[in-house]
Structure formats: C-alpha cells, structure tokens
Design goal:
Distance between the termini: 26 Å
CATH topology of the largest domain: UDP-n-acetylglucosamine1-carboxyvinyl-transferase, Chain
Strand order of the largest sheet: 2-15-17-16
Helix content: 25-40%
Length: about 425
C-alpha cells in the first residue's frame, strides 16, 4: 500500500452490510489455548494479520505444530499438552501486545531459555507487572531496567502458588496468566490489585478457557481467580468477527447518516466492544440487535459524557465521531490507553488539533469539541486504530490524508478496500 491514503468525502448517507475479519483478541487467545491443549484443535474464522502471524510464527518456534490456511481463515494446531518442546527460542513479536504478554506467560511453562522482543515502541510498553506476577509464582523472568521488553524467561515449568497482579495497566497481563495457569505444577491463585481495566476482555478469556475444558473460579467483581492443575482439550472453535474493527464501520453510519449492518455479531458476543453501538445510541443513533447481526442507523448526533474503560479500544472511534456532534464529548476512565501501540490519548488529541478541531487531554481521558475538519496529513504512530478511526473524518471533509495506511495490517489488512466498497454502495 502507498505511504498515504487520501479519503474522498461522500455525498450522502452510506449504507451496506459487511462482515469484518476475525477478532484479533479471540484469535490470539485461541491460538495460545489450542497450543497448550491435548490433541488437535481446528480454528475457523481466524484473522490473518500482522499480530496473528507473529503469534503463529512464535508458536512454531516453540515447537508447536501450526498449519495456517489464510484463504479459508483456518488454523490446525496440534497441542503440546502443556509441554513446550523447544528448550530455546527467540521470539520477535513486532508491536503485538497480546503476543508478548500471552507468550511470556506460556514460556514460563517451558524448561529452557526464551527471549521475547519487538520493535522500538514495544520496548516502551510496560510488562514488569506481568514479570513480577510470574516470579511470585516461582518463575524466573526478567525485563529491561525500564520494566519493558525485551523479556528473558528461564523456564523451570512454572511452580504455581499465589500472585498479585495490577489491574490498572492492561487486562492482558491477567489474561496471559490465566491461560497458562492450568499447566503450572501446583494450583494458581491470582489476586487483582486495584481496579481492573477492560473487564470484558478478562471475561472473554475465562469463557474461552471454559470452552476448551478448563475450570476457573472467581467472584462477581473479578478480584480473584483460582485455577486448579488441569488440561485443555483440543476442539473445533469458530472465531467471531472483530468487534473493535466493527466500530469503524458503525462509525461510517454515524457520521454519514447511513445504515450499516455488521453480520456475525450479536448482543451476547464474547467481545465487550460490541457495546460501542450503545455509545452511538447515546449520541442519537438507532441500534437494532439481531441474532447474528447488528445494524446502526445514523441520526443527528449529540455530544456525550461517557466512561469507556470497558471498551477503550473503541474510544478513538468515538472521538472522531464526536467531531460531528452537537456539543462537546468527554471520554473518561481511559488513561490506560497511554500504554497501547502509542499514547492513544495524546495521539488522538494531537491529530484532531492538526485537523483544526479543538480537543484537549484530561487526567483520565480526553474532550472533543465539534467543528469542521480542515485538510491535514494524519500521523498514525504505527497504530492501526489511529488510521482507521481518523478515516471517518475524511468521509465528511476534504483533504484528510492518512499517513502509513499499511499499519492497519495489524488487525484489518483490507480496511481501506472495504471502506471504499461500502462508500461505493457495493456491499449491500
């Protein structure tokens, strides 16, 4: 793809029906669980993207037999039964947070020496809380002096026990620990220190673990998790479409006054991000929930004051939709977004300002005021969500050009092609 992508404003409402690619969050969790399971698993609906490819490559380097057919969105994995075959491996995960966090915990189950690293931005993303928790469980794991990757794991087959894990930075630490805990030598108890961010992702992890046969106990407030020594069982598993990716498509309906239907998702989907549409509903859109689809129809938008902690991966989308609302929008309780692929709070505010929109950072989020976007080259900071969310500005304003559009390959390689097809009315 070229180094920039200029958007063509639409002349009227955009409507259509589309199924986004498979969920990155579910795909990478399913790959880890299937890799640890007894026997073969067949995963369908698998996302083919940068993040999932680095996960597959890493699993192969750990000795896991993974067959991936991108054309049919299928993976076949012969599980290792919790016994990692490779006694040495160097894993390079680009800027995939799920990969490095899940794989670090998995490597602690092995017997040998493993290193995990990524691009320069990955070396700025904290991982010390995960390292500390693994060491409390008897692991031998170290990170750099900054508390960020690279990570070294001297595997001794994780002993187990009890550990405290901070909940305020990333739920992926807890998810990584949970998925590997059934194969520790002894039962594992994980206690969450402080308020847990992105709770729906932890619920997703627990549900998937149960789907592969694991038994975990926890209270309603998700403050403690007890995992007995046990084994996953290989199975067939279908991956839902990516609800975070769907947010940009629903955003198309919101900013153009059209109607977009996303198939494969429903109100009880594993992914909490399906409830982004409830945020759009608060802004004035109409939402229709179906058994296997969700439809959003745009309407006159109004600004909102909203807590997006549980669905923070869609906060950038809401920020760009808010540009076209009546009155300001305040997005709260998303300070942990600063530790993602980029500092997403600062990046969103900077790029909105670049496009002539008044926006400001707050202690735990940001505030966006309505306005008319001006021509601008939008920096994406090697962050797929910056590219996709800011594309919405270009549907209503001339001269919006997205730099490094190829960064969408992290989770949605065909995003700009699908967006163009929607806008041309080809996906009805």
């Amino acid at each position: 793809m070229s180094s920039s992508q200029e958007l063509d404003p639409v002349t009227g409402p955009v409507s259509g029906t589309i199924r986004p690619p498979g969920s990155k969050s579910i795909t990478n969790r399913a790959l880890i669980i299937a890799a640890l399971a007894e026997g073969e698993s067949v995963l369908t609906g698998v996302l083919d993207s940068q993040d999932t490819r680095v996960m597959i490559t890493s699993l192969r380097r750990l000795g896991i037999d993974v067959s991936h057919d991108a054309d049919t969105c299928t993976c076949r994995i012969m599980g290792c039964g919790g016994h990692i075959q490779a006694d040495r491996a160097e894993l390079f995960v680009e800027n995939s947070g799920t990969s490095i966090r899940f794989l670090t915990a998995m490597c602690a189950l092995g017997v040998g020496h493993y290193t995990l690293d990524g691009i320069p931005r990955m070396r700025e993303r904290p991982i010390s809380d995960l390292v500390d928790a693994l060491n409390a469980l008897g692991g031998r794991v170290t990170a750099s002096e900054s508390g960020c990757p690279p990570v070294e794991v001297n595997g001794i087959r994780l002993p187990g026990g009890q550990a405290s894990i901070a909940g305020s930075i990333s739920s992926q630490y807890l998810s990584g620990l949970l998925m590997s805990s059934p194969y520790a030598q002894n039962p594992v108890s994980l206690v969450v220190d402080g308020e847990l961010v992105s709770k729906p992702y932890v619920t997703m992890t627990l549900t998937m673990m149960e789907s592969f046969g694991a038994d975990v106990t926890w209270p309603d407030d998700l403050s403690r998790f007890d995992v007995a020594s046990q084994k996953y069982q290989g199975r067939e598993y279908d991956v839902e479409p990516d609800a975070s990716a769907a947010s940009y498509l629903f955003g198309v309906a919101a900013v153009t006054g059209g109607s977009i239907t996303v198939t494969g998702l429903h109100q009880n989907a594993l992914q909490g991000d399906v409830h982004f549409v409830s945020a759009l509903e608060q802004m004035g859109c109409h939402v229709e929930w179906g058994d296997d689809r969700i439809t959003v129809t745009g309407a006159e938008l109004r600004g909102v004051d909203i807590d997006m902690n549980a669905i923070s991966d869609t906060a950038q989308t809401l920020a760009t939709v808010a540009v076209f609302a009546e009155g300001p929008t305040t997005i709260r309780n998303v300070g942990h977004m600063r530790h993602k692929e980029t500092d997403r709070v600062a990046a969103v505010v900077t790029e909105l300002q670049r496009a002539g929109i008044r926006a400001e950072e707050t202690d735990d989020g940001l505030r966006v005021y309505p306005g008319e976007p001006q021509p601008a080259d939008i920096e994406t900071y090697d962050d797929h969500r910056m590219a996709m969310s800011f594309a919405l500005l270009g549907l209503r304003a001339e001269g919006i050009r997205i730099l490094d559009p190829g960064c969408t390959g992290k989770t949605y390689p065909r995003f700009f092609e699908d967006l163009a097809a929607l806008c041309r009315g080809e996906l009805s």
